[in-house]
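Sequence and structure are no longer studied apart. To make this concrete, we show below a single chain and its fold as tokens.
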Amino acid sequence: MDWLLDVDIVGGAAFWAPCLLSAAALLVLLVRRPTRRWVIAAASALLIGVLLGLIGLWLAVDVLGAFGGPVDTATWVWVPVCTGGIALALVTIARPPLWRRVVAVVAIPLFILTAGLIINAAYGITTTVGAVLFVNTTPGIAVIPPTDAAADDPAEPVVDTWTPPADLPQHGRYGVIDPPIPNDASGFDARGAQVYYPPAALVADAPRLPVVIMMMGQPGSPDAAIIASVLDGFAAQHDGLAPIAVVIDQLGTPFADPLCLDSNRGQAESYIMDDVVPWVRDTLRVLRERTDWVVAGYSNGGQCATYLGSKYPETFGSILAVSPEEFAGESDRAGVLDEVFGGDQAAYDAVKATTIMGEGDYPDTRAIFTVGAEDPGYVDDTKRLARAASGAGMDATFISIPNADHGRSGIVGGLTAGFDLLATRLGLAAARG
């Protein structure tokens, strides 16, 4: 069954076959003797279908907030294209001959599948059948513990003492942490975290390395594939050195949003700070100084990273927020205010990162906020967080990623730019003259 879950749905035959079949079905539905009655019926169906798709999407995205925020351009294009095609198929079903009716019936699910595949490919985050179904097929990976857990961190940056051995692997490795991180302190029912080890972590007598605690978006999964690809590229430019990355689940289930807090939705904050952080510090071969710890995230995870980095500067010396939401529950603020905070606006405001920043002290916190230039729904949020961080005394940077949106391009571009800026701070590159 795993072979089916691992099928590539963004570039292989499983993507192109439905696209080509849909194009053929649409051509069959359109091409027939052009009587006045048929032309009017077909044109009307297409127009009404497209309009219904646009209206339905507007209601779902902008009125009901069903997707937790804005959607990309591909969604605005392909949803109405799909509904237009469905409307044309429905009109065709009522007309002979029988074989054309059969094509129309088959075309409806085919159009839906094709639109979904194209929209998913545009985001580029879920690349397999299993990922779309939130079924994890990533293999387990063993923990690489420190050789001497009681030893102090070295005084010198890693780059000053590192000599890549002859057997240095070309690539790092990632997988599901096995056995999983315990949740004894919080009881939070998190899905299995994943860890990425760079090449330098896979050799004999590997050095302690800086660490990144990473969180993905909502809906989503704790998938290390994207950050692993970015850090593999980073390691290739730094003699195999890169941070160890632990990608954790701040949600519990794909569509839940515990808000990165301890609340009636779950003890997500305690899970991260009281379960994950001590486990990483005590179990993995990582440096323990706060300046070697980065909290990072994308979208919902970016909001969470900003919140945690602002609230716990003694733990996290750096924040890397990629396309972040400004505050927890932003897309459903009225519902969150009522359900989680009992209508207490002051209590809700108190857990927003901008509020925490205004009350904090940050003599040595590095904060990097990135967003795709083609991601208008998140640009203003990201700029506001960067301004607040700078105003609070953090060493803050705002980066707009050219030609990137709220999908893979924004994540890869943001992480790449962020780690490039953090390389010296994390001791993985010599200071630039």
About this structure: The longest strand covers residues 366-372. The longest helix spans residues 36-63. Residues 2-123 form one domain.
